[in-house]
Amino acid sequence: MWLHRAMHAGFYVLLTASAARYVAYHGADLLVLGLALALGLGYPASVRWTRALPLVLAVWLVLVWLAPSFGWCAIPLFFQCLRQLRPRVALPIAAVLTAAVVLAQIRLAATFDPSLVLGPVGVAVLTAAVFFDRARLLHEAGVLEERQRLAREIHDTLAQGFSSINLLLSLGETGKAAEVARENLGEARRFVRDLSPIHGTLVDALHRLCPHVEVDGDPYALSVQTEVALLRAAQGAVANVAEHAGASRVAITLSYLGDAVTLDVVDDGRGFDPAAVKAADGRGYGLASIRGRITELGGTVSVESAPGEGTAVAVTVPTP
């Protein structure tokens, strides 16, 4: 993430600035510069492995005692502690880092100044506040994303399943309607248990969804995410046909193109103006859900329709 990269870059900027300042005021002390070099070389290991973090912190504590200007590096090290350790461990360590900076500055200063204490403490508090607020925002974003995923899954399983049953019954396909009803019940149970939503192959699932399915090209293995997305796209398109189109025929074409797979759902219904569709009262949610799923896989969705001319929904997903 950008904040992590910024902190890592900031560490090396501060480390270089501290070394330059020390050399400018005190000359090239081999011990101090050697510790600074060890700190710079060890920092990536502390980012990658938590076990290396205590050693890097120990090197920094010695370094900041010898050369207080290296106290500037405390902020990215403090951030690393918060990121890698539990708060009950990270916060006491952060307090030690802050105290080390305060003591080093007091030892170096000719006279005591309250800012020598308040400055490092204030910076530490602000760093912790920024970190925990960001963690809270990320958690809330994750919760919202999961809610949207669950809403989409429920819509794509239960609502679209019932729409498919309604379409099959209107076409007189009572046997297939009963089969889809049983499958929809099973899908709902599998969804609750977070299992794969497809029985058999994708082609089999499409045949159970629609009476008219054509497969072009030789089928090859697809990822589970791709199969689920294509099936949900087909279910969403068929559900929209059942609810809005008044169609007498729906056809699905699944094409295996080698570097991509396409899914076309075409009906002879009343059609509509795609530019005028809005997700109001649940209408339009199906197309938005299809686009959301396919976009996540790097694919595209196009809708061709006009009043009185039927509708064609075309989905393309790359298959590396």
Task: Please explain how this structure is put together.
- The chain is of the alpha+beta class.
- The chain contains ten helices and five strands.
- It has helices at about 1-25, 30-50, 55-65, 75-85, 85-110, 115-170, 175-190, 200-210, 225-245, 285-295, and strands at about 215, 250-255, 260-265, 300-305, 310-320.
- A five-stranded mixed beta sheet has the order 1-2-3-5-4, with helices on one face.
- The two termini are about 25 Å apart.
Q: In terms of topology, how is this protein built?
A:
Blueprint: H1 2-26, H2 30-48, H3 53-66, H4 74-84, H5 87-108, H6 115-170, H7 174-192, H8 202-209, E1 213-216, H9 224-245, E2 250-256, E3 260-267, H10 285-296, E4 300-305, E5 311-318
Parallel strand pairs: 1-2
Antiparallel strand pairs: 2-3, 3-5, 4-5
Helix pairs in contact: 1-4, 2-3, 3-5, 4-5, 4-6, 5-6, 6-7, 6-9, 8-9, 9-10
Question: What would you say about this model in short?
Answer:
It contains 10 helices and 5 strands, in the order H-H-H-H-H-H-H-H-E-H-E-E-H-E-E. The chain has 320 residues and is α+β, with helices and mostly antiparallel strands. It has a 5-stranded mixed beta sheet with strand order 1-2-3-5-4, covered by helices on one side.
Q: Give the strand tally.
A: 5
Mean pLDDT: 82
Largest sheet: 5 strands, mixed
State the strand order across the main sheet. Answer: 1-2-3-5-4
What's the overall geometry?
A: elongated
- Overall radius of gyration: 31 Å
Cα distance spanning the termini: 26 Å
Strand residue content: 5-15%
Structural class: alpha+beta
Helix content: 55-70%
**Could you give the order of the helices and strands?**
HHHHHHHHEHEEHEE
Low-pLDDT ranges: 279-284
Tally of DSSP helical segments: 10
